[in-house]
Amino acid sequence: MTMPLTDLPLDPATLVDAGQALLLSPPFWWQVGVVALAAAGAWLVHRTLGHGLAAQAGDAADAYAVRHLARRTLQRILFPLAMLLGVLAGRALLMRMDMPVGALDLAVPLLVSLATIRLLVYFLRKAFRPGPAVKAWESLIATSVWLLVALHLLGWLPIVLEALDAMAVEVGSARVSVLAMLKLLLALALLWLLATWLGRVIEQRIGQAAFVNPGMQVALVKLSKFTLMVLAFLLALNAVGIDLTALAVFGGALGVGLGFGLQRIASNFISGFIVLFDRSIRPGDVISVDQSFGWVQALHARYVVIKDRDGVERLIPNEMLITNPVINWSYSDRNVRLKIPVAISYDNDPEQAMALLLQAARANERVLAEPAPAARLMAFGDSGIELELRVWLGDPEAGLAAVRSDINRAIWRLFKEAGIVIPYPQRDLHIRSGLEGLRPRG
Question: Per the confidence metrics, is the pTM higher than 0.90?
Answer without folding.
Answer: no
